[in-house]
Automatic annotation (TrEMBL):
The chain crosses the membrane at residues 47-76, 136-156, 168-189. It is found in: Cell membrane. It is a multi-pass membrane protein. This is DedA family protein. The keyword Membrane applies. Keywords: Cell membrane, Membrane, Transmembrane, Transmembrane helix. Belongs to the DedA family. Pfam families: VTT_dom. Signal peptide: none annotated. Residues 29-156 form the VTT domain. InterPro entries: DedA_domain, VTT_dom.
């Protein structure tokens, strides 16, 4: 928190954008902390509210493009080869995931920007599936703009109580992580059961 505060005090709104970009790639501090703090800082008149929204959205897109690039570097064929060597995963799993992303990728990228944890992860399959980078950037920017604006305005409105945003959204992050853990566990158990039968 102190580091982010100093970053914004030193660099202004670009500092908030840099923090969000780093959070997308290496999430040590979630945007649920950074964005309301940016709103609070704007409320104190230290940075511009509009600039905070624009810079954090640019940071979100920059961070997402790094992970998109990782996915594009991996590519579908490399992912198939990796899947072929992994336990419980098959090449057809990768193909099914790719087909699903071809059908629902735009909605997944847009909505995924507003879901904790998924926000960072969604960029990798977009790169793997070869979603056009212009389309990926557009929908990432749109989803990020909605999410960033909502949290920055919440921090602006709450003032010194801006940490309430993280407190309540922390439950959402926990729920998403639990859901992912359950899904992975179910996947592994179903594969083990299928191999035994």
């Amino acid at each position: 928190m102190e580091w982010i505060t100093r970053l914004m005090e030193t660099l202004g709104s670009p500092g908030a954008g840099l923090a969000v970009a780093l959070e997308n790639v290496f999430p040590p501090v979630p945007s649920e902390v950074i964005l309301p703090l940016a709103g609070f800082t704007a409320g104190q008149g230290k940075i511009s509210l509009i600039a905070a929204v624009l810079w954090t959205t640019a940071g979100s897109v920059a961070g997402a493009l790094v992970l998109y690039g990782l996915g594009a570097w991996l590519g579908l064929e490399r992912m198939r080869r990796i899947a072929d060597r992994l336990p419980f995963v098959t090449v057809s799993d990768v193909d099914k995931a790719d087909e699903w992303f071809d059908k629902h990728g735009i909605k997944a990228v847009f909505a995924g920007r507003m879901v904790p944890v998924v926000r960072s992860l969604i960029s990798i399959p977009a790169g793997v599936s070869g979603m056009p980078i212009a389309k990926f950037t557009l929908y990432t920017a749109a989803g990020s703009l909605v999410w960033n604006t909502a949290l920055i305005l919440a921090g602006y409105a709450l003032g010194e109580n801006h940490q309430l945003v993280d407190r309540y959204l922390g439950w959402v992050s926990t729920a998403v992580l639990v859901a992912l853990a359950i899904a992975i566990s179910w996947f592994v158990i179903s594969r083990v059961t299928a191999r035994r039968s």
